[in-house]
Predict the 3D structure of the following.
Amino acid sequence: MEIRRAVQGEFQVLSDLAFRSKAYWNYGSDYMDAARNDLTVSPVEIEKNPSLYLNMTGKLLVSTNLWNIRHKIRNCFGYSSTRV
């Protein structure tokens, strides 16, 4: 298992994870299209707001975006190909 700070070049992987995580809950396509911008992670956001990257077996499992010196959780997305 690897836990580390995300780097700017991983913005697309993190954005895809956020979108898949939201889609897991079977929101309609209209809602998901409307939510896409809110779920998109930019390189600037990664730099300004430390994001943690949890990787197991070569796949990103969790991205957590922490946003202030108290490290309050802003967004936490996780995805598994298997429904629980």
User: Anything to note?
Assistant: The two ends are 21 Å apart (CA to CA). The mean pLDDT is 76. Strands lie at 2-5, 51-56, 59-66, 73-78. The first strand starts at residue 2 and ends at 5.
